[in-house]
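Entry 14. Structure prediction run on the chain below.
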Amino acid sequence: MEPLEIDGNADLDIEDVALLGGRFGILEKLRMGGHGSTKIIYKSGIPHFDKVDRNIDGETPFVSFEIMRKVLILRLNQNQRVAAVAMHMEELQTIDLYAIDSTETMQQQSKEVDPKYALALITQNAEVHFIVTKYSFDSIRKFFSKAYFENRLRVRID
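Output returned:
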């Protein structure tokens, strides 16, 4: 994963966009059913994001995803502090999405303890964990089911 420089609006530098393969055109975005995701809650796994967290109660670290030609952009927004990383598609091995009824089962399944709905992005060098709300679960499943992700998604509903 590659940390990115972004401005206060979480916009990428034009030169970075070009180096990352560029964005899709409007017709391509329409054909793929969109290029962005709903926000979910970041939990762990990205040191660049961990630096933004001040560990203050009530400050929730939200992350959204954007598909670009060669990378998946992860944008963090926590109480108007922003950060972004690029996850190169060749790094991404597995996308695990869980809907589990029991916290005990979740503890056995993953390092995460709290959520009943969770997402893990597994790369060659890291595991990145997120909490997915019940209301965003279907939207996140649809996003990661796109052909762009080449069948890396594994969904488990218990």
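The two ends are 31 Å apart (CA to CA).
Filed with the rest of this week's runs.
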